[in-house]
Every structure is written in structure tokens, then in C-alpha cells.
UniProtKB/TrEMBL annotation:
This is Molecular chaperone. It comes from Photobacterium damselae subsp. damselae. Residues 1-18 form the signal peptide. The keyword Signal applies. Keywords: Signal. It comes from the Bacteria.
Length: 241
């Protein structure tokens, strides 16, 4: 298992996977919609199941409420197809959209986990050869809050930076200390869901002295650039429309 941005995961091992997903983080458009591109890199067809879950942050922890037929009436998002086949070397576009329309909560991000799980596609009468291993992806789909309250705290202690997002929306934080002398291992980006706290370790060429810090909302409606120094704390809080 590999952890990616926001806890998005790749299930399986390294190497070429039977299925590939175009992104581990999808931000909805102004209409609350998005699309994933699923690619089959294998020589045989692949059957894919898609499951959605609503993500909530409770006391700083990520809680997932998976959608099933038993809670159908409470679904806030759906995909165009939850089961499909991708032929060898082909791609499939799967749409995802909010179901709440005008009733969506504009004061908070709506956040969902989209889990794509492939299984071998076996035609009738054809024997399955060998042992097949499936690889799945779980991506994050975010419908950004329209009425944003940006509030965060960032503190640096040598090579470690503590991030706290008290906003009602997801933030992207970019640390950059690259220069003519250091062009690699000098920057890092982190994505933080609302209500989450995270400590990250800076790359080796970004640990000493001041570091340029850029904070944006997940949809780039908000942008702020600051300089973070050792033992210093950056704090910002403001409502934006």
C-alpha cells in the first residue's frame, strides 16, 4: 500500500498495473461535476467496480461513509457507471457529479472517496490461467465551498513543519527554497483537508533558514505568499467570497 496525497491509496505493488487512473485528486467544476480517465494497460479486458464514500473529518480523523443500496436516499454524489469493462489498451471516461444541485452546502467542502477496483474479466467458457492480482485506486473528489473561511497555522522547527487547517475548505501548501545552488530536494507540496493537522519533513535542501510558503485554496480562489522562518508561526484567518 502506498500513501499518496490526502491518504489516497494505491492497492498492490510497484510496477505496471493492469489499470491506471489519471489523478488521485479531482476538484469539481462550478457545476459540481468531474471526470476520471481509466486506462487498461493489460492485454486482456478488465472489469472495474466503482464505490463512493462521503468523507467527514471528526476530531481530526478521516471518517468514510461508503455508499450502498441500504443508504441510497442519503447519497450526495454519483458516477455515470459503477461497473464497466475496459478493453486492452483502451480508456474509459467516468463522470462523477453532485446530486444535491442547488441544495449543496456552500459553507463547507463536500469531499468524497472514489474507489476503482479492477477484477479479471473472464469470458464464458474460457479458463482463467494462473493467478491474477488486482490493483485498485482510491481518489479524492472535492466540491469546494463557495463561501470560504480561510484559517490556518503553520510552524517550522528545523526540518519539520506543522500544518493546521481550521478552514472550511481544503488547502494546498507549497514550500520552496530552490535556488541556483539547489535545484532538487528543495521544495514540497502538501494538501490538507479542513479540520486536519499534519507534520511534514522538509527535503534536505529546504531545511535551513527561511522558506517561501504559498498557501492556496484547492480551487485557487485564495492565494497567499509568506516567508516562514525557524521557530516562527504563520497564522491567517479571513472570510472570502
Amino acid at each position: 500500500m502506498k500513501k499518496l496525497v490526502l491518504g489516497c491509496i494505491l492497492l498492490g505493488s510497484t510496477g505496471l498495473n493492469a489499470m491506471a487512473l489519471d489523478t488521485m485528486l479531482k476538484v469539481a467544476d462550478k457545476n459540481g461535476q468531474g471526470a476520471y480517465v481509466v486506462t487498461n494497460n493489460e492485454l486482456d479486458p478488465v472489469f472495474v467496480n466503482v464505490n463512493l464514500a462521503k468523507i467527514k473529518i471528526k476530531q481530526g480523523d478521516v471518517v468514510k461513509d461508503y455508499y450502498t443500496k441500504d443508504n441510497l436516499l442519503s447519497w450526495e454524489a454519483s458516477v455515470t457507471q459503477n461497473k464497466f469493462i475496459v478493453k486492452p489498451g483502451m480508456k474509459k471516461i467516468i463522470g462523477i457529479r453532485a446530486l444535491c444541485a442547488d441544495s449543496c452546502d456552500e459553507n463547507h467542502d463536500s469531499i468524497f472517496a472514489a474507489q476503482f477496483t479492477p477484477t479479471p474479466y473472464k469470458k464464458k467458457g474460457k479458463e482463467e490461467k494462473g493467478v491474477s492480482i488486482s490493483y485498485g485506486y482510491e481518489s479524492i473528489f472535492i466540491i469546494p465551498a463557495k463561501n470560504k473561511k480561510i484559517s490556518y497555522t503553520i510552524k517550522k522547527n528545523k526540518s519539520l513543519v506543522r500544518l493546521k487547517n481550521d478552514s472550511n475548505t481544503t488547502l494546498k501548501v507549497f514550500f520552496n527554497q530552490c535556488s541556483a545552488m539547489f535545484k532538487s530536494d528543495c521544495s514540497i507540496k502538501s494538501v490538507l483537508l479542513p479540520g486536519r493537522v499534519r507534520t511534514i519533513k522538509l527535503p534536505k535542501n529546504a531545511q535551513k533558514g527561511n522558506i517561501n510558503t504559498i498557501v492556496t485554496s484547492i480551487d485557487d480562489d485564495f492565494y497567499r505568499k509568506e516567508v516562514l522562518g525557524d521557530e516562527n508561526e504563520l497564522h491567517f484567518s479571513k472570510k472570502i467570497n
